Description:
With about 400 residues, this protein is mainly beta. The protein is built from four helices and 13 strands.
Amino acid sequence: MDLRPVRRRAGPGPARVRPGRVQHGHRASGRRARAGGPARPRPEPVEGARGRGAAAAREPVDLRLAAARHGAGDRDPALRRARALALPEVHRRGHARPCGDPGPRLVTAPARRRRRAAAGLVVLVACSASIAAGGERTDAGTAQGERTWFPSRTLFAPPLAGSLEPRFGARLLVADLGPVNRTLGVASFGDTFGLVRWRDARGLDWQLGLVAGVDALFDLETGSRELWNTDFLVGIPLTLRRGRLAARARLYHRSSHLGDEFLLGDPPVSVGRRRELSYEVLELTAAWRQGPTRIYAGASRLVGRAIPVGRHLAQAGVEYAPDPDGQRRARPFAALDLAAWSETGWEPEVTLRAGFAMPRPWRGRGRLLVSIELRDGPLPFGQFYGIDSRWVGIGLSLSD
Length: 400
């Protein structure tokens, strides 16, 4: 580029610049001078144009997930705001992040987080300290060296308030999702089945089994009872027990799938904007039972995952559940479960279930549970794990 000084025409008046020449003293700008007028100064850079502003300009527009096109309730403006659960931008009460971006974790008031965790720990310690001696609920023993095929019960009873425990049942929930309250329904189908049990030379009972379950989440306030999400879980549990102590090692797969009506809302959720939430987990949990009271604690690690999410989970809880077998009347029970996931910044998930347990109305062992459920924490339903929620509900389920 020619950077020589521009020749000026003799005589009065402003100098005219030849096209294609650059004015002397504007080398940094590198801009061509306009013919017939003074050179145009270089504009100042805009603050943050390459930082926050450019990133915001590239941000994809959040999907406003509307209801299915069936029923008057689907056109509720409040519902549209409540269901701005934009996938894959997982909304967390005023916060959203793109799929795959680790970003900030679930944000709630620090005081509320401390109260939630402290309340759960106080109840755990109080219940653990008040365990009274009593009879232990056991199955018929297995002689050393013998194998029992397809035992009727498990050595490690699934936690009554655990959110990742497959069971047969149904729940009706009134949930606070942030913008509005919604009435939700959950249908659950699943159980833990024993395959073989044996006793070793040290007197430890071992059992290998199979666990499988499906949890379907419905919005009961839409005309079509819209299916929001379905979670699938399948795994292999290895359990052991000796006296009052029991433990479970479980390797399981969990995947989450959005409902068709949810995907085909207005506007529809494109394939490229869905979270492929699918992972494999190795879990270790131990429990101590004294009479009708049991305490348990465990930890899990994701050993495989389809998208980058947190790898670590923790769980603890306490239960008071007398065995109703052989009883003609219902027995009260209560269960508290505390859980946390590194993906949500270890935000506590507190679940409390209480109600009545009674023997199954048909031949076989186990309990029929009628319960009230309270929960505070991130939603446990697949792709909506980033929603900080509260709910109260009633449920009917079968448990070992």
